[in-house]
Specification:
Protein name: Response regulator
Radius of gyration: 18 Å
Pfam families: Response_reg (PF00072), Trans_reg_C (PF00486)
Domain Response regulatory: 6-119
CATH class of the largest domain: Alpha Beta
DNA-binding region: 136-236
Order of helices and strands: EHEHEHEHEHHEEEEHEHHEEE
CATH superfamily of the largest domain: Response regulator
Number of helices: 9
Shape: elongated
Number of domains: 2
Distance between the termini: 34 Å
Strand content: 15-25%
Structural class: alpha/beta
Helix content: 25-40%
Keywords: DNA-binding, Phosphoprotein, Transcription, Transcription regulation, Two-component regulatory system
Length: 241
């Protein structure tokens, strides 16, 4: 990575914090650590971070609660760590807005690879060829606006709504194909083609997260509709600004 990204590691185990700090710093990252949510917020109020590594099991507020709070007001990339390996735990982490999920025990090199992947997606800059064939910079739908240059989503009241990198790519895939039925396989290809590491089983979770952000009633969606036996359809007129 060309620039020295700054990472905040939040874990209540000092040995893990120290291990990750040493290892990641050896690979060109700047690393600050915190033992719990209180310390995390203290560090985040004092300086800017490019990515957050957040343990699921923390004293006080747990990682899921903290992730949900952060995601409500920030799109900072989040990788969650947990000693639990059940699929449901991964799904919970994704539902509250985590960008990736690494179960303990983990190989530090694998975590480093995940960090690089998430940072690459989040801070991706298109090359000249991509810019020449770029999609419209502003999509307008149901009084919402998505700016693909700034990656900002604004609701009908002109308020910013934070999106993770994977949520952004998923929404852009829908906006690029309005009123078209897209299977999970279609969405997987569209999203991965834009540089996101998304797996088939995460498609439904990502769509659920998007519905919670853009639908008036996520349980009865009017924008992202489920087509039984077919997949999903973005049922709304989309214009370009």
């Amino acid at each position: 990575m060309e620039r020295a990204y700054q990472i905040l590691v939040v874990d209540d185990h000092k040995d893990i914090r120290d291990l990750l700090q040493r290892f990641l710093q050896q690979h060109g990252l700047r690393v600050v650590t915190a033992a719990d949510g209180v310390d995390m917020y203290k560090q985040m109020s004092a300086q800017r971070f490019d990515l957050l590594i957040l343990d699921l099991m923390l004293p006080g507020k747990d990682g899921v609660t903290l992730c949900r709070e952060i995601r409500a007001e920030s799109n900072i990339p989040i990788i969650m760590l947990t000693a639990l390996g059940e699929e449901i735990d991964r799904i919970v982490g994704l539902e509250v807005g985590a960008d990736d999920y690494v179960p303990k025990p983990f190989n530090p090199r694998e975590l480093l690879a995940r960090i690089k992947s998430v940072l690459r997606r989040h801070f991706a800059i298109p090359n000249v060829e991509e810019l020449a064939t770029a999609s419209p910079s502003l999509y307008i739908f149901d009084h919402w606006q998505l700016n693909t240059t700034t990656r900002e989503l604004k609701d009908p009241a002109d308020a910013l709504v934070a999106l993770t990198s994977t949520e952004f790519t998923m929404l852009l895939a829908f906006l690029s194909h309005p009123n078209v039925v897209l299977s999970r396989e279609d969405l997987l290809k569209l999203v991965q083609g834009r540089g996101a590491d998304v797996y088939d089983r995460a498609i439904d979770t990502l769509i659920s997260r998007l519905r919670k952000k853009i639908e008036q009633d996520p349980k009865q969606p009017k924008l992202i509709k489920t087509i039984w036996g077919g997949g999903y359809q973005f049922s709304c007129e989309v214009t370009h600004g």
